[in-house]
Amino acid sequence: MRTRQASSTALIADMALFRHYARGRAVMISLNPFAREGWLRSVSRPLRRELPNAIRRKLAASRARSNRRGHPATFIGITGSSGKTTTASLLGHVLEAHAPTTTQAIYNTAVDIAPAVASASRNSEFVVLEIGASKKGSVARSARLIEPDVAIVTIVDLEHYSVFRSLEAVADEKGWLVNAVRPGGFALLNADDEHVLAMRRRTRERIVTYGRDEGADFRVLSAEFSFPGPLRVRIAWKGNEETLVSPLPGKHFWLAVTAAFAAAVELGVSPEQIKERIAGFGGVPNRCQIMEVPHGPTFIVDAAKAPFGTIDLAFDVMSDATDRRRKVVIGQISDYAGNPYSKYTKAYQRARAVADEVIAVGDNAHKVRATEEDIASGRFHRFRDVYDVYAHLKKTAVEGDLILLKSSSSLHLERVALAWTSDVKCWEKRCGFTIGCVSCGLYSHPFHEHGRIRRREKRRRRREKIRRLVAAPFRLFRV
Fold first, then answer.
1. pTM (two decimals)
2. 213-217, 265-269, 432-436, 460-464: the lowest-pLDDT one
3. How far apart are CA 190 and CA 219, in angstroms?
4. CA-to-CA distance for 165 and 168, rounded, in angstroms?
5. Which residues, 6 or more positions from 223, have their beta carbon under 8 angstroms from its beta carbon?
6. For the segment 287-297, what is each residue's pLDDT rounded down to a tens digit?
7. What is the CATH code for 70-279?
């Protein structure tokens, strides 16, 4: 009996699992150090996961520096707290009609920049890259890889507040792109932003300015927009004047339009060609993107980012559309200091001023302090899940309604609009991805199938890569 009890005790000891709590989650640790959840594998797991990534990053950086060395193209880096994605995409759209152009926007971290520079075709005459600031030193690392011939800075604002904490710190980080401008290049700076304009002291190369300021080289004389548009921007430069017409929905897009126009002119593109290309650029998905549903509402999808400091810009787009019923959906707000309750309540109050109905959704929806009167009258609704917002709008929205979806990317609020015209089956609350659902491409599959689909696609790409490597030597002997 004792032997059996001792064996049982030993077996239990060998397989014992101790439960402890980390970050609010229960974690099982096995006494066997070599087990999947054993202490040895648990302790070494971060290193085993990070080491291959670190090696890949080092190799990508090495390939990037090698490809950049002697590359014939003009490299253009674009940074700023806001407007850089649209500016990069629009400038790439303009330049590709003039000469072979490679453009990378949205994927803007140092990890993304290295493979972009490494793979930049030597047949390209222009390489346009968006540069983001995810942490201190990230812009400097990207700038060293790009070695830009042209550096464009939009505005400095308190985005990534948790990292930088002040406008001066943000400006210092963004300014490293200007520091890196190659001899013979130029920096294109926003003359209306004192922190951006101060970056002129960080380079000896030529400075070109743009903005509303009277001293700007490319001066905006007027910017007019009334929903549904178009946006009209009148610009004067070097004794010339031009009115640009853009379908971008919002007066605030004058910044991106002007920056792209000024850069293209300085790079030798004719104003007539630039004007034509700007008129044909429809914008970037999830950045004040207009989605019209046949016989249904019109959505303004601005679900990629929602910094508190610039959240009013999306609401301003709605303010002129007084001929239709307006609804605003507020999701996750980012980049603010202080009490979140006051920030969400202020955002609600600003939305209420331009909308007939305001909807708050997500884990922070309860932080909106709406009045009892607004709740009782249906002027305000609160939901926990994105699907519930879709279900509510599906019941209440009618043809002609204008609906703004405003949130940071983690909530994937764009699914509300997609579900009107597509079969959206992924309504996961926290998928862990910040790329848009259209870029992900798996919104028509339930979330629990995504891992299997991605692994299958990864295996397919690996097989294709091996097939090309094996076939490469045989191509040399083809007649």
1. 0.84
2. 432-436
3. 10
4. 9
5. 231, 232, 233, 234, 251, 254
6. 999 999 999 99
7. 3.40.1190.10
